[in-house]
Amino acid sequence: MTDTDHSSPASTPESAQPASALATAQAGAGRARRGGFVPAVVLLALLALILGGALYYQNQQYRTLRADLQQQHEQSVRLVQETREQAGQALSLVQEQAARIEDLRGALDATSGQVQELDQALRMMTDSGSDLLLLNDIDHLVTIAQQQLALGGNVANAIISLEAAQAQLARANRPGLAALQQSINGDLDRLRAVATIDLPALSARIDRLSDLIGTAPLLVPDAAAHPAGQATPAAAQAPAAGTPAAEPHPAAQPAPEGWRAVAADAWQWTRDAAGLVSRDLRSLFDVRRVDDAAALLMSPDQALRFREVLKQRAVTAQLALMMRQSRIWQAELEQLSRAIDQRYDMRAESAREALKIARELHDTPIEIALPTVDNSLAAIAAARDAAAEEDEQDAPAPGDSLRDAAPSPAVAGSV
Description:
Elements: H1 2-128, H2 131-152, H3 155-172, H4 178-192, H5 199-215, H6 233-237, H7 259-284, H8 300-323, H9 326-343, H10 349-362, H11 374-394, H12 398-405, H13 409-414
InterPro entries: HemX (IPR007470)
Coiled coil: 66-121
Region (Disordered): 1-23, 229-258, 383-415
């Protein structure tokens, strides 16, 4: 017993040690299970929150997209309605325009019918109607030709008028108006044979004469003829007086030596000095024959006014050319020729050209005897008288017309 009692305390700690270890292990396992369960729960909670947020975000996006689609659908419906209304308006407008076009087409057809009727009536009146109407048209055209010849001397317009009258007679094809057609043909032949005046060419020559009057040199130099920096025409064409002409130097000419060189230099110096003295003396004196002594006494202002007066005479001559005033034409050109011959320097080419143009224009006639169309007018008067006589013969007598108008007794009784 004593041993047993002494041994039991020793055995008790050995058996209690495994039990405590098991309990510790179980407690550690419980704690481990609890430690692993908590993160899992937290993780699941986080996943649930994330999924919930995602679902909420998708729901919001879906609602926004649905609202946008609904708004676009409403806009599309409104646009379709507006388009349908515009299409209806356009359709109604097209229908109205189609109705107007139909009305216009009907009016056009009616107008075309009236025009055709009027054309036929006019053709009947022109081709087979009264001769007096045709003669009036021919008389009008021939009178226009006569006016063109009498007022402006325009042969071309007169020919055009007579050709129109000739063509109208040819279309009418009236054998009774053959004499009138022959008279018009004769007047046309005479007009075509007239020599015309080239007005543009004569006007251009007058313009050239006016330019030369303003630039050609006078006997007394002035600013108009000698602009600054330019030489006179005579000085430009001829070398200076007293200046020896350039002499050709032989290619193989030996230079003089000794006393010959001195003599050659002295002779050259003497020639140069003589040339200078001669040129100076000639510049002091200018000997020429002048018919009008007043030409050398003009001042620069008088020379300018003299040129302007001559230009005015050229303008007057041009107006006389346009108006076919032969006397004024010849008088103005004669005055221009005399003034150019007396006051301008004939040594200049421009002055000689101006005098030549003035004399040629003076000798050019501008008044030409033009034929008349009196034969055609006389033939028209004769044809009109003949047509009036035929109408008087064809017209019924007053008694005949009353007799035709009165009904017969039998007819009157029946009525």
